[in-house]
Design brief:
The complex is a heteropentamer, with 2 copies of chain A (250 residues), 1 copy of chain B (284 residues), 1 copy of chain C (293 residues) and 1 copy of chain D (251 residues). Chain B is an all-alpha fold. Chain B has 2 domains: 2-45; 48-283, MetI-like fold (Orthogonal Bundle). In chain B, 75% of the residues lie in helices and 1% in strands. Chain C has a domain at 64-241: MetI-like fold. In chain C, 80% of the residues lie in helices and 1% in strands. Chain C is globular, with a radius of gyration of 23 Å. In chain D, strands 1, 2, 3, 4, 6, 7, 8, 9 and 11 form a 9-stranded mixed β-sheet that branches. Chain D has a two-stranded parallel ribbon with strand order 5-10. Chain D is elongated, with a radius of gyration of 19 Å. Chain D starts with a strand and ends with a helix. Chain D has 10 helices and 11 strands. Classes of the chains: A alpha/beta (250), B mainly alpha (284), C mainly alpha (293), D alpha/beta (251). The interface between B and C is large, with 101 and 97 residues. The complex binds adenosine-5'-triphosphate (ATP) (2 copies), magnesium ion (MG) (2 copies) and phosphate ion. One adenosine-5'-triphosphate sits between chains E (13, 16, 18, 38-44, 56, 91) and A (146-151, 176).
């Protein structure tokens, strides 16, 4: 069953035509990887799925995006609800100027949880899943802005999973991480995919192979090819895809 | 970047360092001069009776306790009214307003409000609050006039501060499913607090030091006001009368010194609190 | 639950909208009030006579405010000319150059300065500055220059505090990027930080300008209040605000109304000055981003 | 119970002193508010205050609607810098100085020094009285420095050796020197017997029949206790026939 | 010959002891890679070499850092000069809120170049080296803030090399880049190393192997091992190093 469908999605920033007719389907409870050269529109596509681009003043969209068959751009839909369901880890880590604990607790609190014990436990659990607990357990009250780049990135992952979204969008979640943290995040993704639908942008082909079932290859705002990951990396249909994954591109 | 062409950057840096430090020192000198002048002239009048006593003989003798109470009273009312309106308007302008024309109109309105002479506020307060709304000469009328005067400062400073909060914070919060208001309330405003407080302090200090605007609205009673419908006489008004009618220049400067010390205490305490808060959230 | 949340959001937005248009409503009420009171003088004396008349002599029913228009504009501009550079330099000093400890002392003290009542500034000017100016520059000592000097000191705290905050809220990433390229502190300030903080700085200047043009009691004491066009900056003059404050207490009848007409003229000038300020704001904030974001 | 008194800032200190003493023994609140004589006249006229204060006589039109209660007469003192060696001026000289015909102190027997005229703002009670009594048909010169209060006139004179101005007698001090006018020195006696010419009334205004508490207060003002306070404030109270008239009126 | 030496370098942020006695030598005209788990102090070390940490209020340092034998923390030294010589690409891309062109031209202008043609040419050259030219050549006047994450990263690289620093510090310069852009940046590094001394932080072991001659392995604020890259990856001396590079760590 498909969780998300996009139909002939066109995105413009002002006069720039960024996404040029994206039609694709993201199946439920799997990991889908988006790959493609820098600037091809992966982040833009991801940010269209939880309506994050609405914040950009000159953003314009045509076409449809469906979540469980409902148009997410319908005026009747509550955007906050959508974003609660569709969580996101951003490309640049963006912790709040709050303590480490408060960063992770934030999502829980805004969704109405006020049981302190529950929150504390959930925060710990999320930080452990994001492989950050050991490094921060004795400084949970420190500001999150004093963390290293990779630590901030893991914090943002913890913050997102703490609220149990149903779909998780990850924009290069491991780009600032060392191999060990990366492995831990990949393990986490494996664990999550049983219940969640995950879309991950990555520049690391190995990572795509390791974690995802499906892969879409983006180029210049279009999807060149979508397929099972093991297919796409072994016998790509398109020449361009092959060029890209073998590094012959450009 | 023309500078670097004429003067080598390092020399420019040296010159500018000098200029910065000089301007800092000049400002400091002005401060010391004025504060010193007030304190030197005012401290002789200072004693416990002056602060806690009632004025005798129109203020020629005695103390200024009722005036201290009136001042704190009207300023508090002004702050309680102007802060939510000012900050609320700032939030609206940055986070909600999407009609450019309304935004510009509102901003223009606030700027005009900020430039209106206090005497006009005074007359307006008399005509509108005292007479038209039947609030009489009272702490409430005076507080309302001061609230209007403080409003534009609080509003504009809040707007500037809120708009300088990085978008990534908003995205982070919205991305977790927070509503717009939750995002504003829990992420944007806390990050903007230091700047907003500057605005509120500036607005309040303007209110607490205002004589002309309250002259026609708060009354001039030398009794200590109890309810908000009592008339009162804030410090600046008392000071104004003592000084301009030649009642007692010594007591006038004493009153000024009390006011300055009062404001100094308020700003230092607020700044300390904000500083601690900032260190807590920014971790620095 | 769902509905309730939506309703709350809706109510908050509308509530905030009300706070935002509040200033407009107040301005309108003030406008109506002033125009209403000013109309008798306008219809009797004529608005153009009023604006361009050179003589102000209420006892002779002469209500020309032209000298005061010149007075208000001159005093405001001269004080901004002195205050803006000094306060911006001082703001930069506090935000970028001074060590933390210095800033922590300086900030509250500067804010305190804006809490000193105008009367005190007025007396300080009258007793200390006026004689000084007379001895140094001749004349009576009551002058445009004296008034501007006092106004300069009065607007310093506003401009310094607000622009200091604007400068400090420029993300430190920009600072690091510039310094990392080997830019000196001053180059970084001039080319990166200052442009990024410019919108806030202009707001600070506009607030300062508002304070300068609206200040009354202090100016009355040191400007001499002679309703004539000043020939030099050491001549006395009268501003529109002083004119209102000076005579409001006694005026009755058409004279009273004429003072409100003075306020109308003042409004017009404020609006023109604001439009000019906005023109600059627009021009320079475009430059700061070197194109459109 | 509250009584509002609004108006002349020159009368305000006296009003306050009266209020202060009266409220000590009576269960009533009195709010004495400044604003200027014009404000006092307007407020009584619009009936937003119980009592108006004015430091100048009303014009005929105003008199029709408001009742004037004279508290007393106050002197207007011609004052100069303490270093000035001129001691006496006649009304004609004062007029010529203020109208700008005489511009140097040596023309009236002083040092060779420019005269700097300090005046009060148009409409002020003090200035109106001065103009009525001294200036007659001529006007105060247009480039005279204008100050808006007794104290700022005084301070302007203190710091300027060539200055001349007029201030109210109640607030005279040693900072400045007072001149004889037509050879008469200013004092309570010379004001009372009208030999000192420059004087003006301090007035309470009422509009129609005042409420009881106001009546009681005003009656007290014209009682010996009230008159004593007026005198203490260096104001010369009305003569006894006048006082009797007011007491009758306020019954 | 050694370009940079650090002798028993200790760094504290407030009470936190971040670098615990770093003694190492960075040779001239080579590429040195710094590896190690997230949060171990790589960025902190890098930022100590061009005195960027001076900006952090509670930063404290002990020990010495020498550039060509001179103490860079000597009070006589001009920090701007130092930073001009020792250029830096930051971990989080941080373009100025200016146009793309102005971002790259900035460094040139502050160093006194005012020949428009020279600047334009240098900007083009740098953007080409950073593999960004093709994507931005027709929108040089647009704001740099509208670029994608990877584009911003490449812009920051272009901005740094435009000023010809002698030493280049790169904090994960390829973390947001696709394989092709990565290859181009690596080529650039190969080209630069002939004349420049380069220190690069990377989480990508393959990248370290491809570009660097020496590698230092950081752990908990200490250098566990420094050696030739081919040595360290093939026969590490320390058990911890081996654990880390084989991914068995943690
Ligand atoms: N400004 C700061 N204040 C306090 N602690 C800090 C600050 N910056 C970094 N730290 C701490 O110093 C340690 C080292 O940070 P650093 O940024 O050097 O790590 P890193 O090796 O670059 O990690 P990453 O690979 O995640 O970027 C971390 O534990 C971090 O939390
Ligand atoms: N706010 C914006 N305004 C204008 N153009 C934008 C904006 N954001 C992105 N773009 C442009 O849209 C295109 C796609 O950007 P996007 O961020 O989706 O790329 P990406 O595939 O995520 O690249 P990367 O791997 O570098 O992050 C780029 O050319 C970029 O310059
Ligand atoms: Mg991206
Ligand atoms: Mg790092
Ligand atoms: O306030 P006045 O007494 O001068 O009218």
């Amino acid at each position: 069953m498909n969780r998300i469908e996009s139909k002939n999605l066109q995105v413009y920033f002002g006069d720039n035509h960024i996404l040029k007719g994206i039609t694709t389907e993201i199946p439920k409870n799997t990991v889908t990887a988006l790959i493609g050269p820098s600037g091809c529109g992966k982040s833009t596509f991801l940010r269209t799925l939880n309506r994050m681009n609405d914040l950009i003043p000159n953003f314009k969209k045509e076409g449809e995006v469906l979540l469980d068959g409902d148009d997410i751009y319908s005026p009747r839909l509550d955007v906050a609800d959508l974003r609660k369901k569709v969580g996101m880890v951003f490309q640049k880590p963006n912790p709040f100027p709050k303590s480490i604990f408060e960063n992770v607790a934030y999502g829980l609190k805004i969704h109405g949880h006020d049981d302190k014990e529950f929150i504390a436990q959930k925060v710990e659990e999320s930080l452990k899943s994001a492989a950050l607990w050991n490094e921060v357990e004795d400084k949970l009250d420190n500001s999150a802005l004093g963390l290293s780049g990779g630590q901030q990135q893991r914090l943002c992952i913890a913050r997102t999973i703490a609220t149990n979204p149903e779909v998780i969008l990850m924009d290069e979640p491991c780009s600032a991480l060392d191999p060990i943290s990366t492995t831990k995040i990949e393990d986490l993704i494996q664990k999550l995919k049983k219940e969640y639908t995950i879309i991950i942008v990555t520049h690391n082909m190995q990572q795509a192979t390791r974690v995802s079932k499906y892969t879409s290859f983006f180029l210049h705002g279009e999807i060149v090819e979508s397929n099972f990951t093991d297919k796409i990396f072994v016998e790509p249909k398109e020449q361009k895809t092959e060029d890209y994954i073998t590094g012959r591109f450009g | 970047m023309g500078f670097s062409k004429i003067i080598p950057p390092k020399i420019a840096q040296k010159i500018m360092n000098g200029v910065f430090i000089a301007s800092g020192i000049v400002t400091l000198l002005i401060l010391v001069l004025i504060l010193g002048y007030i304190l030197v002239k005012g401290l002789p009048a200072f004693n416990l009776e002056f602060i806690f006593g009632n004025p005798i003989d129109s203020g020629k003798e005695g103390g200024i306790f009722p005036m201290i109470v009136s001042s704190l009273y009207v300023t508090l009312i002004a702050g309680l009214i102007a802060t939510p309106f000012g900050v609320g308007a700032g939030v609206y302008m940055v986070e909600y307003a999407n009609n450019n024309r309304i935004v510009r109109l509102i901003r223009f309105g606030a700027e005009t409000l900020a430039s209106i002479p206090s005497i006009v506020f005074g007359l307006f307060g008399l005509a509108f609050f005292v007479v038209f709304l039947h609030l009489g000469w009272s702490i409430l009328s005076g507080g309302l006039v001061l609230a209007i005067m403080a409003l534009p400062t609080i509003f504009q400073v809040s707007e500037v501060t809120i708009s300088s909060i990085p978008n990534s914070y908003r995205e982070g919060s919205l991305g977790l499913g927070a509503t717009k208001w939750q995002t504003i309330y829990k992420v944007v405003l806390p990050a903007a607090i230091p700047g907003i407080v500057t605005g509120v302090i500036l607005g309040m200090t303007r209110a607490i030091s205002e004589a002309a605007a309250v002259m026609f609205s708060v009354g001039a009673s030398i009794q200590t006001p109890i309810s908000i419908f009592d008339p009162g006489r804030p410090l600046p008004l008392h000071l104004y009368m003592l000084a301009t009618e030649g009642i007692s220049l010594e007591k006038a400067f004493g009153t000024a010194a009390v006011l300055v010390i009062l404001v100094l205490i308020i700003t230092i305490v607020t700044n300390l609190v904000v500083d601690r808060y900032q260190r807590k959230i920014m971790g620095k | 639950m769902q509905k309730k949340k939506k309703l709350v959001e809706y109510l908050i937005e509308k509530g905030l909208f009300i706070t935002a248009i509040f200033s407009i409503v107040i301005i309108l009420i003030i406008f109506i009030f002033i125009i209403n009171e000013g109309i008798p003088a306008i219809s009797e004396y004529g608005f153009l006579n009023f604006i361009f008349g050179m003589t102000w002599a209420p006892s002779d029913s002469q209500f020309g405010v032209f000298p005061m228009i010149i007075g208000s504009i001159c005093v405001t501009l001269l004080s901004l000319l002195m205050a803006v550079p000094l306060s911006l330099l001082c703001a930069i000093f506090m935000a970028e150059v001074a060590p933390d400890s210095v800033r922590k002392v300086l900030k509250p003290v500067i804010e305190t300065l804006s809490g000193i009542p105008s009367v005190v500034y007025g007396f300080f000017g009258l007793i200390v500055i006026v004689p000084l100016i007379r001895e140094q520059f001749g004349g009576t000592g009551f002058s445009m220059f004296t008034a501007s000097l006092i106004l300069t000191v009065m607007v310093l705290p506003t401009i310094i505090s607000v622009s200091q905050d604007a400068i400090r809220s420029v993300p430190s990433e920009y600072r690091e990027a510039s310094l990392g390229l080997g830019a000196t502190n001053w180059q970084t300030i001039k080319n990166i930080i200052f442009p990024a903080a410019l919108p806030g700085i202009i707001t600070a200047i506009i607030l300062g300008m508002g304070r300068a043009i609206g200040e009354t009691l202090a100016v009355i004491m040191v400007a001499g209040n002679v309703p004539l066009i000043p020939g030099s900056i050491f001549d006395p003059l009268r501003t529109l605000t002083s004119n209102i404050a000076l005579e409001m207490g006694y005026a009755t009848g058409i004279h009273y109304s004429a003072l409100f007409t003075t306020a109308i003229v003042l409004f017009i000038i404020i609006i023109v000055l604001l439009l000019v300020a906005h023109y600059f704001q627009k021009k320079y904030s475009m430059d700061a981003y070197g194109g459109h974001a | 119970e509250r009584i509002n008194i609004v108006g002349s800032t020159s009368v305000q200190p006296l009003g306050e002193k009266l209020a202060e003493t009266y409220t000590e023994n009576n269960n009533v609140l009195i709010n004495v508010q400044g604003g200027g004589s014009g404000m006092g006249i307007r407020s009584s006229h619009q009936n937003i205050t119980d009592i108006g204060m004015s430091s100048k006589e009303l014009n005929n039109e105003e008199k029709k609607e408001l009742e004037e209660l004279i508290l007393g007469q106050e002197g207007i003192v011609i004052s100069v810098n303490n270093e000035n060696n001129v001691n006496d001026l006649n009304i004609g000289q004062i007029k010529n100085i203020f109208s700008g015909k005489i511009r140097n102190w040596k023309e009236v027997g002083g040092k060779d020094l420019n005269i700097e005229v300090i005046t009060r703002e148009e409409g002020s009670g003090t200035r109106s009285a001065f103009e009525d009594l001294v200036m007659e048909d001529s006007k105060i010169k247009a480039d005279a420095i204008v100050q808006s209060s007794t104290e700022s006139v005084k301070q302007s004179i203190v710091s300027n050796p060539g200055a001349i101005g007029f201030v109210s007698y109640a607030h005279m001090s040693d900072d400045v020197k007072s001149l004889l006018v037509d050879g008469v020195d200013v004092s309570e006696e010379t004001i009372a017997d009208k030999s000192y010419k420059l004087q003006r009334p301090f007035i309470f205004l009422i509009n129609g029949e005042p409420k009881d508490s106001v009546k009681e207060f005003l009656q007290w003002v014209y009682s010996p206790e009230g008159i004593k306070i007026i005198k203490e404030e260096k104001i010369v109270p009305p003569n006894s026939t006048q006082i009797l008239k007011y007491q009758e009126l306020l019954k």
